[in-house]
Amino acid sequence: xxxxxxxxxxxxxxxxxxxxxxxxxxxxxxxxxxxxxxxxxxxxxxxxxxxxxxxxxxxxxxxxxxxxxxxxxxxxxxxxxxxxxxxxxxxxxxxxxxxxxxxxxxxxxxxxxxxxxxxxxxxxxxxxxxxxxxxxxxxxxxxxxxxxxxxxxxxxxxxxxxxxxxxxxxxxxxxxxxxxxxxxxxxxxxxxxxxxxxxxxxxxxxxxxxxxxxxxxxxxxxxxxxxxxxxxxxxxxxxxxxxxxxxxxxxxxxxxxxxxxxxxxxxxxxxxxxxxxxxxxxxx
Length: 284
Fold this sequence. Notes:
- By secondary structure, the protein is an alpha/beta fold.
- The chain contains nine helices and six strands, in the order ααβββαββαβααααα.
């Protein structure tokens, strides 16, 4: 029988900040970036404080790897229409705050923005998106490259390697068919389960270290409270959307009834056409 695993958002909040559990996060990042990632430091992020009530729908973590690159990992459940701008703000804020006054621009650290979202962002048919900066010729369609001197100075091979890169993983769009190692991770994010046949780096540690029944009784109670709060919050959001839609439809019927009254239609006809009661129509 499979034992229950804790959700990844809880792990980010409580468990993956412990050095003993770095291998889990290193596994996911290595699979995503397709190179070996070693975490050397956890840096301050918005959610480092213990504030479940205030940030139940979102958790973020900022880590530094051996190459001194910065990786912002953000997980969010609730829909946010300006989430693209939020991603941009987070990377821009980090860049401006970490470059010390008087230091050359070449000291700017590479930033990766990794976004695990449980809502549909934008329009697209895929579930994993990667964005990076590229300068392409308007006339020749060539890609602007670094000079040999710049490659030596920056220790970079391409211009895009200087700029922030973005990953957006739309977890609810995943079809539960694991085709590669990254899909195995996304399957865990979506289902809180690691299948026996999964071999992706870090998932063995997930199965070993993120078992719910391995938590202390106090931690298990906190986890159950967190899950209930999350379900409640998502239910409130869903209800608000439904009620908002209903209110919008009612307002549209009222506006239609007003226009019909202006054109001289009788109350019975307006009621029949709009679905409003004659009493409501007479009050308009």
